[in-house]
Amino acid sequence: MLPNLRAWLLPVRKHKGAVVCDNFRKVFDETRVAAGIAEWPDNALRHGFASYRLADIKDAAQVAYEMGTSEQMIKKNYDGRAKPKDAERYWNIRPSATEKVVPMVAR
Questions:
Q1: Which of 107, 3, 8 has the alpha carbon at shortest distance from 53?
Q2: I need a labelling partner for 17 at 20 to 30 A (CA). Which of 23, 48, 60, 104 fits?
């Protein structure tokens, strides 16, 4: 687990139970629309991870291993998609204060 993900998850961790609610996609879509994000491409988070991770560590074999795919697929789909300075900014996104992290709760 990369440090920025850990920073987001630790304040809302549970020691057991589901990671997301049963109706996560519905809640996610409602939140996305309320935030003014009209569309969410399939696998957007996976694609973002791959692009920024490759730009950051410059090791397609490692990124492929972390994602469970081939080095060739990583190079073909993600090489050059993100700049190293943007990757650095991406991996440094952290919650500003743990009190402001609001867990998504099932309705």
A1: 3
A2: 48
